[in-house]
Amino acid sequence: MSRIEKIKEGDLVIRRKDKKPCIVLEITRYHKRNYGTTAGASTRKKCLLLFPDGKQKWVVDTALKVGFYLPGDPWFDDIR
User: Average pLDDT of the chain?
Assistant: First the structure.
C-alpha cells in the first residue's frame, strides 16, 4: 500500500508520468458534499504542489494518489 495518505507539508513527491519531483507546500481540507445527504460532508485533503518549472497547483488527494508517489515507495521505484 502506498504511504501517500500520510503526506505532510514539505514532503517530496514524484510525478509518475515524467518522474519529475514536486514539493508539497500546503495541505488544507476539501469539503465535498455528497448528493442526497443532509448531515456532514465528505472531508478530503487538497495539496498545493510546487512543480520544477516554478508553477503551483492545487491537487485533490485522490489525484495525488493516482498521479504521484513518494520516493523510496516499494510499489513505484524511482530507479526504473
Answer: 81
